[in-house]
Amino acid sequence: MIRRHLPFHCRSYWKPPGLFPEMGSSALLTLVAAGVFLWISAIHADTNDDGQLLCICENDKGTCENGTCRGDYCFYTWVRGDQERGCFMKDHVREQCMTSFEGFYVSCCRDHLCNGNITPPPDINGITTTPPPAFPPPELGIAVSLLLLFVTASVCALMLFLHFRRAPCRLKDAEDQDVTKLKVPTGDDPTYDNIYDEFCTSGSGTGLPYLVQRTMARQISLVECVGKGRYGEVWRGTWMGESVAVKIFSSRDEQSWFRETEIYNTVQLRHDNILGFIASDMTSKNSSTQLWLVTHFHELGSLYDFLQYSSLEPESCLRMCLSVACGLVHLHTEILSAQEKPAIAHRDLKSRNILVKRNGQCCIADLGLAVIHSQSNDYLDVGNNPRVGTKRYMAPEVLDETIRVDVFESYKQTDIWALGLVFWEITRRTVVNGIVEEYRPPFFDLVPSDPSFEEMKKVVCVDQQRPSLHNRLHSHPILSAIVKIMKECWYQNPSARLTALRVRKTLTKLDHDSDFVIEKLKQDV
């Protein structure tokens, strides 16, 4: 926000005889009445802009009442032969009304029942049509209303000045007066020209446009169930000839679906080591509502599944650990730009919530428990999800309930504790001197398969035990360096632990050094 002071330097004026005739009280009242009328008209016009329209409603989302709905905009969409009519609020008008790509047509309007007779153009046939009309930004209406009010007030002030012949005076103190606040927009609006290119990459963004997301469930064919958990099920589906993952949330985990949808749709998360988001949708199956989260599909499955049947070489172990650290750094980092990204703490980092890609790297998934923090806007959003993290991966300060829940750094430090445990799982399955251990979860030798809160608290907080480390890990330079990182992630004191950025820098240097050694050995051979 920028404050601008509008100084009013006034001075006495000399009035030649007969230049301004004496004004009667009736003329003054007429002018004042006209000014008030203009002011009320401006307010009324602005109020009408904020009022809700009655729109034709034809969709299966449960938003229609007797074939109509109310909102700030009416819309009509055509997506590969499927048509919908309805309404929505003005919060995401640019995202919802200004999208243009093959096989999709949208028309938005702002009159009562204006979407009733809209049809797709005759030349649509999967070809991009003329772009929808650009709607004026909301600041324009505010500016026009303020301008009318300012002009009206100026005219009234001038008339009063002429009537009473008073010489005005300079404002005494600008800080004691009302000032005009001007909101200065920054940056360009987001575009979706490369949305299908992004769909085919390994990164993630804010997904498809909102109105397209609302039709995803009808376009996806579910092929096979690839996983189940307390949250619900994960299916492999096909969409536009590509495999996608469809996470179907159970009704008791509705808050996790809302939270993940909220995070993916409000921040810029595109990164190679964060699971790629495509869309979020609700659909009705067998008289019950299903909550869908559609993401990129990785056939190797979760890191937990991958480590059950696969062993690693030290170099592969290093690059896998580095990729997880890179994803966590991106989450933890606040980005200040035209499209601002707040800092995010995961709060449930574990091998089951990390997916393995074909290139041997990993990407972090499941943001249902995430905490959002913006230092520039001074807010901390912990959400209202009743679900708690996985007890086996909980940090000491979470188990003994000494964590400072109002400080964002506390949540980042719990992620670092869990990161060290994930590294331990990966190194356990790494071959050194021909020796490799079977997969086991952290603390497998100290607590049962489904440990209670109190059992984990005794092991981690009271006894201060840590996962055991095999002697072979100390005989290899890469593994011994990762062991050192793990130990520094497991400090009892949260503030003494490494940051994600420091972990990434250390592993990156280790990766470069190992590449140099391997290249030198090849040259010697």
From TrEMBL:
GO molecular function, one term: metal ion binding
UniProt domain GS: residue ranges: 190-219
UniProt keyword annotations, A-Z: ATP-binding, Disulfide bond, Glycoprotein, Kinase, Magnesium, Manganese, Membrane, Metal-binding, Nucleotide-binding, Receptor, Serine/threonine-protein kinase, Signal, Transferase, Transmembrane, Transmembrane helix
TM region(s), chain numbering: 140-162
Coiled coil: none
GO CC terms: BMP receptor complex
Subcellular location: Membrane
InterPro entries: GS_dom (IPR003605), Kinase-like_dom_sf (IPR011009), Prot_kinase_dom (IPR000719), Protein_kinase_ATP_BS (IPR017441), Ser-Thr/Tyr_kinase_cat_dom (IPR001245), Ser/Thr_kinase_AS (IPR008271), Snake_toxin-like_sf (IPR045860), TGFB_receptor (IPR000333)
Transmembrane among keywords: yes
Recorded family membership: Belongs to the protein kinase superfamily. TKL Ser/Thr protein kinase family. TGFB receptor subfamily.
Protein's UniProt name: receptor protein serine/threonine kinase
Lineage: Eukaryota, Metazoa, Chordata, Craniata, Vertebrata
